Amino acid sequence: MDCFICVTCGVQYGPTEEAPGHCRICEDDRQYVGWSGQQWTTLKELRGKHRTDVRDDLGLLGVGSTPSFAIGQRALLVQSPGGNVLWDCITVIDEAAVDAIRQLGGVRAIAISHPHYYSSFVEWSRAFDAPVLLHEADQQWIMRPDPRIELWSGATRALWDDMTLINAGGHFDGGTVLHWPAGADGRGALLAGDILQVAQDRRYVSFMYSYPNFIPLSAGEVERIVGTVEPYEFDRIYGAWWDRNVEAGAKSAVRRSAERYMRKLAEPD
Predict the structure, then answer these.
(1) What string of H, E and C letters represents the secondary structure of the chain?
(2) Which CATH number does 2-266 carry?
(3) pLDDT in tens, 109-142
(4) Domain ranges for the chain
Protein backbone atom coordinates (compact mmCIF):
# COMPACT_ATOMS: atom_id res chain seq x y z
CA MET A 1 0.00 0.00 0.00
CA ASP A 2 1.11 3.55 -0.70
CA CYS A 3 0.86 6.71 1.36
CA PHE A 4 -0.63 9.03 -1.22
CA ILE A 5 0.23 12.73 -1.27
CA CYS A 6 -2.06 15.51 -2.45
CA VAL A 7 -0.35 17.41 -5.27
CA THR A 8 -1.98 20.72 -4.35
CA CYS A 9 -1.34 20.93 -0.59
CA GLY A 10 1.47 18.37 -0.26
CA VAL A 11 -0.10 16.54 2.71
CA GLN A 12 0.57 12.81 2.96
CA TYR A 13 -2.31 10.48 3.81
CA GLY A 14 -2.21 7.10 5.56
CA PRO A 15 -1.49 3.94 3.55
CA THR A 16 -4.27 2.76 1.19
CA GLU A 17 -4.53 0.44 -1.80
CA GLU A 18 -5.88 3.25 -3.97
CA ALA A 19 -5.62 7.01 -3.84
CA PRO A 20 -8.28 8.68 -1.66
CA GLY A 21 -11.28 10.11 -3.44
CA HIS A 22 -10.88 13.55 -1.89
CA CYS A 23 -8.36 15.71 -0.05
CA ARG A 24 -10.19 17.02 2.99
CA ILE A 25 -7.61 19.75 3.52
CA CYS A 26 -7.96 21.10 -0.01
CA GLU A 27 -11.77 20.96 0.09
CA ASP A 28 -11.77 23.23 3.15
CA ASP A 29 -12.51 26.94 2.58
CA ARG A 30 -8.91 27.85 3.45
CA GLN A 31 -7.42 25.83 0.61
CA TYR A 32 -8.58 24.76 -2.85
CA VAL A 33 -8.67 21.78 -5.18
CA GLY A 34 -6.17 22.25 -8.01
CA TRP A 35 -7.52 23.69 -11.26
CA SER A 36 -6.92 20.36 -13.00
CA GLY A 37 -8.87 18.49 -10.35
CA GLN A 38 -7.73 16.35 -7.46
CA GLN A 39 -4.35 14.73 -8.18
CA TRP A 40 -2.17 12.43 -6.11
CA THR A 41 1.45 11.38 -6.06
CA THR A 42 3.79 9.39 -3.80
CA LEU A 43 7.06 10.11 -2.12
CA LYS A 44 8.81 7.70 -4.48
CA GLU A 45 7.52 9.62 -7.49
CA LEU A 46 8.46 12.96 -5.97
CA ARG A 47 12.02 11.86 -5.25
CA GLY A 48 12.42 11.22 -8.97
CA LYS A 49 11.52 14.83 -9.78
CA HIS A 50 12.50 16.89 -6.73
CA ARG A 51 15.41 17.18 -4.33
CA THR A 52 15.75 18.98 -1.04
CA ASP A 53 17.35 22.41 -1.05
CA VAL A 54 19.33 22.78 2.19
CA ARG A 55 20.83 26.21 2.89
CA ASP A 56 21.07 29.10 5.29
CA ASP A 57 18.09 31.38 5.79
CA LEU A 58 18.99 34.29 8.07
CA GLY A 59 21.13 32.19 10.40
CA LEU A 60 18.97 29.06 10.46
CA LEU A 61 19.26 25.95 8.35
CA GLY A 62 16.37 26.00 5.88
CA VAL A 63 15.07 22.92 4.06
CA GLY A 64 12.94 23.35 0.94
CA SER A 65 12.24 21.53 -2.32
CA THR A 66 13.73 22.12 -5.77
CA PRO A 67 11.74 22.57 -7.92
CA SER A 68 9.08 23.90 -5.60
CA PHE A 69 6.25 21.52 -4.71
CA ALA A 70 2.68 22.17 -3.54
CA ILE A 71 2.53 25.29 -1.33
CA GLY A 72 6.29 25.73 -1.50
CA GLN A 73 7.11 26.41 2.16
CA ARG A 74 10.50 25.62 3.67
CA ALA A 75 11.23 24.09 7.06
CA LEU A 76 13.70 25.53 9.58
CA LEU A 77 16.04 23.87 12.05
CA VAL A 78 16.42 25.72 15.35
CA GLN A 79 19.60 24.61 17.07
CA SER A 80 19.51 24.79 20.85
CA PRO A 81 21.71 23.34 23.63
CA GLY A 82 18.89 21.11 24.92
CA GLY A 83 18.09 19.75 21.47
CA ASN A 84 17.07 20.95 18.03
CA VAL A 85 13.56 21.74 16.84
CA LEU A 86 12.49 21.16 13.25
CA TRP A 87 9.94 23.89 12.61
CA ASP A 88 7.28 23.15 10.01
CA CYS A 89 7.73 20.42 7.42
CA ILE A 90 8.02 19.87 3.69
CA THR A 91 6.80 16.88 1.72
CA VAL A 92 10.03 15.73 0.09
CA ILE A 93 12.54 14.08 2.40
CA ASP A 94 15.82 12.65 1.13
CA GLU A 95 19.21 11.58 2.45
CA ALA A 96 20.81 14.94 1.70
CA ALA A 97 18.46 16.72 4.08
CA VAL A 98 18.61 14.01 6.73
CA ASP A 99 22.42 13.95 6.65
CA ALA A 100 22.68 17.74 6.88
CA ILE A 101 20.40 17.84 9.91
CA ARG A 102 22.14 14.92 11.60
CA GLN A 103 25.46 16.71 11.24
CA LEU A 104 23.95 19.57 13.28
CA GLY A 105 22.74 17.31 16.09
CA GLY A 106 19.54 15.80 14.70
CA VAL A 107 16.03 16.65 15.87
CA ARG A 108 14.62 16.41 19.38
CA ALA A 109 11.09 17.40 18.31
CA ILE A 110 9.14 18.55 15.27
CA ALA A 111 6.63 21.39 15.70
CA ILE A 112 4.26 22.49 12.94
CA SER A 113 2.39 25.77 12.65
CA HIS A 114 -0.81 24.49 11.01
CA PRO A 115 -2.25 21.65 8.87
CA HIS A 116 -1.25 23.06 5.47
CA TYR A 117 2.35 22.23 6.45
CA TYR A 118 1.76 18.78 7.92
CA SER A 119 3.14 17.44 4.61
CA SER A 120 4.95 14.12 5.26
CA PHE A 121 5.69 14.75 8.94
CA VAL A 122 5.51 11.02 9.74
CA GLU A 123 8.46 10.38 7.40
CA TRP A 124 10.47 13.16 9.06
CA SER A 125 9.54 11.91 12.51
CA ARG A 126 10.70 8.39 11.74
CA ALA A 127 13.95 9.61 10.18
CA PHE A 128 14.95 11.27 13.46
CA ASP A 129 12.88 9.25 15.96
CA ALA A 130 11.36 12.54 17.08
CA PRO A 131 7.87 13.37 18.37
CA VAL A 132 5.60 15.65 16.36
CA LEU A 133 4.00 18.38 18.48
CA LEU A 134 0.58 19.44 17.16
CA HIS A 135 -2.10 21.48 18.86
CA GLU A 136 -5.16 19.38 19.67
CA ALA A 137 -7.52 21.98 18.15
CA ASP A 138 -6.32 20.82 14.71
CA GLN A 139 -6.55 17.10 15.42
CA GLN A 140 -9.28 16.61 12.78
CA TRP A 141 -6.79 17.60 10.06
CA ILE A 142 -4.29 14.82 10.80
CA MET A 143 -4.50 12.70 7.67
CA ARG A 144 -1.84 10.19 8.66
CA PRO A 145 -2.10 9.26 12.35
CA ASP A 146 1.06 7.98 14.02
CA PRO A 147 2.12 7.08 17.59
CA ARG A 148 4.83 9.77 17.48
CA ILE A 149 2.22 12.53 17.37
CA GLU A 150 1.95 14.38 20.69
CA LEU A 151 -1.12 16.59 20.93
CA TRP A 152 -0.87 19.57 23.25
CA SER A 153 -3.60 21.84 24.51
CA GLY A 154 -4.11 25.27 25.98
CA ALA A 155 -2.47 28.59 25.22
CA THR A 156 1.19 27.54 25.36
CA ARG A 157 3.52 24.58 25.60
CA ALA A 158 6.92 25.12 27.17
CA LEU A 159 9.82 23.39 25.48
CA TRP A 160 13.44 23.45 26.65
CA ASP A 161 15.91 26.35 26.78
CA ASP A 162 12.97 28.73 27.34
CA MET A 163 11.46 28.07 23.92
CA THR A 164 7.65 28.18 23.82
CA LEU A 165 4.93 27.05 21.44
CA ILE A 166 2.13 29.62 21.41
CA ASN A 167 -1.41 28.89 20.22
CA ALA A 168 -2.08 32.08 18.25
CA GLY A 169 -5.02 30.72 16.25
CA GLY A 170 -6.44 32.81 13.43
CA HIS A 171 -5.67 30.92 10.23
CA PHE A 172 -6.52 27.67 12.08
CA ASP A 173 -7.85 27.17 15.61
CA GLY A 174 -4.64 25.39 16.53
CA GLY A 175 -2.41 27.81 14.63
CA THR A 176 0.97 27.88 16.38
CA VAL A 177 4.06 30.07 16.47
CA LEU A 178 7.37 29.24 18.15
CA HIS A 179 9.07 31.79 20.40
CA TRP A 180 12.84 31.35 20.38
CA PRO A 181 14.35 33.74 22.94
CA ALA A 182 17.94 33.07 21.86
CA GLY A 183 17.14 33.99 18.26
CA ALA A 184 18.32 37.16 16.54
CA ASP A 185 21.51 37.21 18.64
CA GLY A 186 19.53 37.08 21.88
CA ARG A 187 16.91 39.68 20.92
CA GLY A 188 14.34 36.94 20.39
CA ALA A 189 12.59 35.55 17.31
CA LEU A 190 9.21 34.17 16.33
CA LEU A 191 8.90 31.34 13.84
CA ALA A 192 5.46 32.05 12.48
CA GLY A 193 4.68 29.96 9.41
CA ASP A 194 1.86 31.98 7.91
CA ILE A 195 -0.07 32.45 11.15
CA LEU A 196 1.65 35.84 11.11
CA GLN A 197 2.18 36.09 7.36
CA VAL A 198 5.27 38.07 6.43
CA ALA A 199 4.18 40.42 3.64
CA GLN A 200 6.06 41.14 0.41
CA ASP A 201 6.94 44.45 2.05
CA ARG A 202 8.87 42.73 4.81
CA ARG A 203 8.31 45.57 7.24
CA TYR A 204 4.81 44.17 7.75
CA VAL A 205 2.89 41.00 8.48
CA SER A 206 -0.73 40.14 7.75
CA PHE A 207 -3.48 37.94 9.11
CA MET A 208 -5.95 35.91 7.06
CA TYR A 209 -8.41 33.05 7.41
CA SER A 210 -7.58 32.00 3.85
CA TYR A 211 -4.68 33.36 1.84
CA PRO A 212 -5.42 31.74 -1.54
CA ASN A 213 -9.13 32.54 -1.31
CA PHE A 214 -8.65 36.03 0.20
CA ILE A 215 -10.90 35.51 3.24
CA PRO A 216 -10.00 37.98 5.99
CA LEU A 217 -10.12 37.61 9.75
CA SER A 218 -12.18 39.92 11.91
CA ALA A 219 -10.61 42.86 13.71
CA GLY A 220 -11.28 41.16 17.02
CA GLU A 221 -9.48 38.00 15.96
CA VAL A 222 -6.47 39.98 14.75
CA GLU A 223 -6.37 41.84 18.06
CA ARG A 224 -6.50 38.51 19.91
CA ILE A 225 -3.64 37.06 17.84
CA VAL A 226 -1.45 40.06 18.57
CA GLY A 227 -2.29 39.70 22.25
CA THR A 228 -1.00 36.12 22.31
CA VAL A 229 2.52 37.18 21.26
CA GLU A 230 2.63 40.54 23.09
CA PRO A 231 4.13 39.09 26.32
CA TYR A 232 7.17 37.77 24.42
CA GLU A 233 10.24 39.69 23.33
CA PHE A 234 11.21 39.23 19.69
CA ASP A 235 13.05 41.36 17.18
CA ARG A 236 12.76 38.99 14.21
CA ILE A 237 10.06 36.93 12.51
CA TYR A 238 10.80 33.96 10.29
CA GLY A 239 8.01 33.44 7.78
CA ALA A 240 7.11 30.36 5.79
CA TRP A 241 9.13 30.80 2.58
CA TRP A 242 12.74 31.44 1.67
CA ASP A 243 13.86 34.92 2.72
CA ARG A 244 10.33 35.89 3.82
CA ASN A 245 11.48 37.26 7.16
CA VAL A 246 11.17 40.45 9.17
CA GLU A 247 14.83 40.84 10.01
CA ALA A 248 14.56 43.46 12.78
CA GLY A 249 11.95 45.49 14.62
CA ALA A 250 9.47 42.64 14.31
CA LYS A 251 7.45 43.29 17.46
CA SER A 252 6.75 46.85 16.36
CA ALA A 253 5.95 45.51 12.88
CA VAL A 254 3.28 43.21 14.30
CA ARG A 255 1.61 46.05 16.20
CA ARG A 256 1.87 48.41 13.21
CA SER A 257 0.49 45.77 10.85
CA ALA A 258 -2.45 44.95 13.10
CA GLU A 259 -3.33 48.61 13.49
CA ARG A 260 -3.28 49.09 9.72
CA TYR A 261 -5.41 45.99 9.17
CA MET A 262 -8.02 46.96 11.75
CA ARG A 263 -8.10 50.55 10.56
CA LYS A 264 -9.00 49.41 7.05
CA LEU A 265 -11.78 47.17 8.39
CA ALA A 266 -13.21 50.06 10.37
CA GLU A 267 -13.26 52.57 7.51
CA PRO A 268 -16.79 53.77 6.62
CA ASP A 269 -18.28 52.90 3.26
Answers:
(1) CEEEEECCCCCEEEEECCCCCCCCCCCCCCCCCCCCCCCEECHHHHHCCCEEEEEEECCEEEEEEECCCCCCCCEEEECCCCCCEEECCCCCCCHHHHHHHHHCCCCCEEECCCHHHCCCHHHHHHHHCCCEEEEHHHHHHCCCCCCCEEEECCCEEECCCCCEEEECCCCCCCCEEEEECCHHHHCCEEECCCCCEECCCCCCEECEEECCCCEECCHHHHHHHHHHHCCCCCCEEECCCCCCEECCCHHHHHHHHHHHHHHHHHCCC
(2) 3.60.15.10
(3) 999 999 999 999 999 999 999 999 999 999 999 9
(4) 2-266
